[in-house]
Amino acid sequence: SAMEGAKSKFRSLRGWNADKYEFKLSVNSAYNVLPGTPNPKFIWKRGSKRAETAVVKVVRGEAVWDQQLTISATMFVNPNTGMYESKPASFVLQTVADDGRAGKTYAEATVDLREFALNPGREVSQKIPLSQGAVTTLTHLQFTILATPLAENVALSEVSSVMSVTDIPRVGDVLAMVPS
Description:
Blueprint: H1 2-11, E1 17-31, E2 40-46, E3 49-52, E4 58-59, E5 62-77, E6 88-96, E7 102-112, H2 114-117, E8 123-132, E9 135-151, H3 156-162, H4 171-177
Antiparallel strand pairs: 1-5, 1-9, 2-3, 2-6, 4-5, 6-7, 8-9
């Protein structure tokens, strides 16, 4: 069964440590939003988790949210390097029609939460360009992330019950490194 497959993958991850973090994201604004763009909301996705802001109006090319979102994530320590594995999260600007129906994705970006986990307790501010497919737009997102460690050495058995194997980066690569 798929569950058995998942369990055996977790067994082979023995020796890996996992630390749980809370990531507090302050979504400030997006600027250089293209003229005529419908009202956007900001969506933060990580695995099966998602958090989103309210819908705002674009005024003179700027969408201002000034809202806080929180997501917790488990950071895996690679026993070979002693470093956290990468933990990508998606930032999506989605347009919303006047009747409240979700429109399409205006632009998005991928952010690695590892960078913020390596600076725990410190607010890290960033400005990043957003992309439409392979095209980088002039639209930039301004945000701040504060990572707070919640628990160290979370037991993998505990982790496995609340997450899917897809949450572990490149399981194939991981298994290739683990002596069988």
